[in-house]
Amino acid sequence: KKRAMMDEDEVLLLHEPWQPFSVDDQLLLVKAVVADERVLCLVSDTTQLWRQALSGPDVLAAVKQLNPGVEPALARVLHILQHNLSQQQPATKYIVKRPEAAGARFGFGFSVRVDRLKFKWQVRAEEGKGGKRRKRKR
Predict the structure, then answer these.
(1) Structure confidence by residue, pLDDT tens digits, 72-104
(2) Burial 104-116 (b: 16+ CB within 10 A, else e)
């Protein structure tokens, strides 16, 4: 069944180029849009595709969970995410966590020093919880 129109997130991501990220000897392709207090991110290993879409309050909740005691303004967080997800940065440490069991989460993230503080972010996706994992049809 074909859809007549793409949703707004798909349109935003369509116009964003894929960026290659080399993480732990693995090539990943990343597309990220940080706009209108939202973060949209696609990560692919060319076999599977993971998606994360978060709005402002969810972005801040994720920051608080990953960075206890750090409470930057949303605008600052969005700037950090845009800078580190739009292309691979040499001073940023990127990580990838592949699911080892059925139902386990895929994780792609980074840690970087920002204003003398270590800032962490993770793109986490699993079927049915904030993200979609799709096998590509061949």
Answers:
(1) 899 999 999 999 999 999 999 999 987 776 666
(2) ebbbbbbbbebee
Task: Read off the pTM.
Answer: 0.80
**Sign of the alpha-carbon torsion through 52, 54, 58, 61:** positive
- Ramachandran angles phi, psi of 38, nearest 5°: -130, 155
**What pLDDT, in 10s, does the model give residues 12-34?**
788 899 999 999 999 999 999 99
Tokens of 34: 């940080």
State CA 106 to chain mean position distance: 11
∠ Cα 110 112 115 (to 5°): 150
Between CA 64 and CA 66 the distance in angstroms is 6
DSSP string, 29-85: EEEEEEETTEEEEEEE-SSEEEEEEEEHHHHHHHHHHHSTT----HHHHHHHHHHHH
- Model confidence at 134, pLDDT cuts 50, 70, 90, reads very low
